[in-house]
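re: ur question from yesterday

yeah so i grabbed the chain u mentioned. its 284 aa long if i counted rite. heres the sequnce exactly as i have it in my notes:
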Amino acid sequence: MQDIEEHSFTGERALFHGRDLRITHSTFADGESPLKESRDIALHRSVFQWKYPLWYSKNITVTDSAFLETARSGIWYSDNISVSNSMIEAPKTFRRAKNITLEHVDMPLASETLWHCDGISLSHVTARGDYFGMNSQNVRASDLRLSGNYAFDGAKNIEIDNATLLSKDAFWNCENVTVRDSLIVGEYLGWNSKNLTFVDCTIESLQGLCYVENLTLKNCRLINTTLAFEYSTVDADVTTVIDSVMNPSGGTIRAKGIRELILEDTKIDPRNTTIVVTERAHAA
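ran it thru and got these structure tokens back, copy pasting raw so excuse formatting
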């Protein structure tokens, strides 16, 4: 493997088609696509300052490095990418890429990041931006801190634990999602999805968890949550009082209490849903 150290790269495609390189303490300044079609590259304490740094690349390891905001659309159509202890300031990073591992990564401008990707592992990642993870699949995330609306729209096969998600319209049009030990805050959670499971979660949502086929809640808290479960088939075990439930399609809802239960027989068959209240709800 060739070592490159303390170098400043300029110009388009500076290391185009690079192979077996160990790059340290270096900067990729002005010039698009510096490592396009590269293979087997290790980057350490280096900086990307311009667009499209790693397109059509394979077997890339990045440690203790930075992608500046101007390094937008940075990693597309690539395979086997690992980034750790780094900051990705650029938006639209990772698109149509496979086998992505991010550990201890900050993404303060993460709008439209991780689109149409397959095989994503996130650990101790902090991200801010809308449309994070759209249409991606096979996602595993632990200790994720995400602030941004429309997260994971259209994604499937997702497992998340110990996360904080501040996201309006999260998990829309999804399939096969399990979230554990997490805090989720956002309106209209999980609409038009299939096989959504929340375990030991705290959820705050306006009109959340509606239009869901096969929704499961296990030992969850629903706080300040109104008009929940509309047209959803649900198996819910809720440890708190639910502010209001509206027109579930069927299943069982177990809760400490329900302040307002709306069952309109012109829209659904109330006999399809079993309501189990463990304590009488009191008006606020």
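noticed a couple things. Residues 149-284 form one domain. also The chain has a mean pLDDT of 96.
anyway ttyl
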